[in-house]
Design brief:
- This protein is an alpha+beta fold.
- The protein has two domains: 34 residues; 83 residues, ACT-like. Chain A, domain 2 (Alpha-Beta Plaits, 2-Layer Sandwich).
- 39% of the residues lie in helices and 27% in strands.
- The chain contains four helices and four strands; from the N terminus they run H-H-E-H-E-E-H-E.
- It has a four-stranded antiparallel beta sheet with strand order 2-3-1-4, covered by helices on one side.
- The chain starts with 9 loop residues before the first helix and ends in a 19-residue tail after the last strand.
Length: 150
Amino acid sequence: MMRISMSLPKKLLADFDEVLKDRGYQSRSKGIRDALQDYILRYQWMNEMEGERIGVITIIYDHHYTGVMEDLAEIQHQFRDTITASMHIHMTVRYCMEVIIVDGDVKDIRSVTEKMMKLKGVEHVKLTSTANGKNFDHGTDPDYSHNHTH
């Protein structure tokens, strides 16, 4: 085992300790190891995806952080061929959420997600995706028509 030291905001540590207590952990170190393993697995899962996907990127950010809104808008303009829609939600006085619909090659989806994760002022980014509609077989659906709008 390696011993490390880290700095965390008080609220993050308090929230983490509360989760550990609720889940019955006896050790903060064990909880941190499990959380890191989950983080690594999610990253690996995102990197192993291939082909055309459709998905949702959820971003929570501090809109008081200078430049974060402009940076998010710039990334969305860069990836306008991948981003099909977005919605902005004012969560609190300080925090906003962007919900972004993406459709296209997973390399582009991964790229836009990672660019947003790196921004200062962004607190949380989550990508959820699945195979896009081009991969579904509609041949057996009697209600499906090629003029059908989805």
